[in-house]
Design goal:
- By secondary structure, the protein is of the alpha+beta class.
- The chain is built from two helices and three strands; from the N terminus they run H-E-E-E-H.
- Strands 1-2-3 form a three-stranded antiparallel beta sheet, with helices on one face.
- A hairpin with a 7-residue loop joins strand 2 (74-82) and strand 3.
- The longest helix is centred in the N-terminal third of the chain and has 34 residues, at 2-35.
- The chain is globular and about 60 Å long.
- 11% of the residues are buried.
Length: 148
């Protein structure tokens, strides 16, 4: 029984730490949103989560070389919206254009990368909550269902 209790304590601690990290991330994300003046394209901070994804051109976001610039490219934050009613379902929207990546101040480049990663961190929680709610709302089916 002690082993199960220890696992429960560890899990509770981890969940608590994720929630704390999420809360701090959301505060920082709101500050980065203002710093990057994204309200020009997205009037209200909470609307930033209406995007299906937010990508970046001109800087790598892969784990191995995060923040590495791609010489000759243009630095741009791109929001991707999904519209199931439109003929073209995905729409790319430039949220911020900064010019040739090698000419952009290093601190600004770092701020942009931090914004993208912080947005993705929060978006992953929202996606998790969405699917959790979907599972909760599934109609109950009997446990006697078998796969043929």
């Amino acid at each position: 029984m002690s082993d199960a209790l220890e696992r429960l304590k560890a899990l509770t601690s981890k969940i608590s730490s994720y929630e704390l990290a999420r809360k701090e991330n959301l505060k920082r994300l709101a500050k980065l949103f203002e710093t990057l003046a994204l309200e020009v394209k997205v009037p209200h901070f909470h609307e930033i989560f209406d995007f299906k994804a937010i990508n970046l051109s001109g800087i790598s976001l892969t784990q191995e070389d995060i923040g590495t610039i791609k010489e000759g490219k243009y630095l741009q934050i791109i929001g991707i919206k999904y519209d199931k009613e439109a003929k073209v379902k995905n729409r790319n929207i430039s949220l911020g254009y900064y010019g040739r990546v090698e000419k952009v101040d290093v601190a600004l480049r770092q701020t942009i990368v931090e914004f993208i990663i912080a947005w993705r961190f929060e978006k992953s929680f929202r996606t998790l909550e969405h699917y959790y709610t979907m599972l909760e709302n599934l109609p109950e089916i009997g446990t006697d269902v078998s796969v043929s």
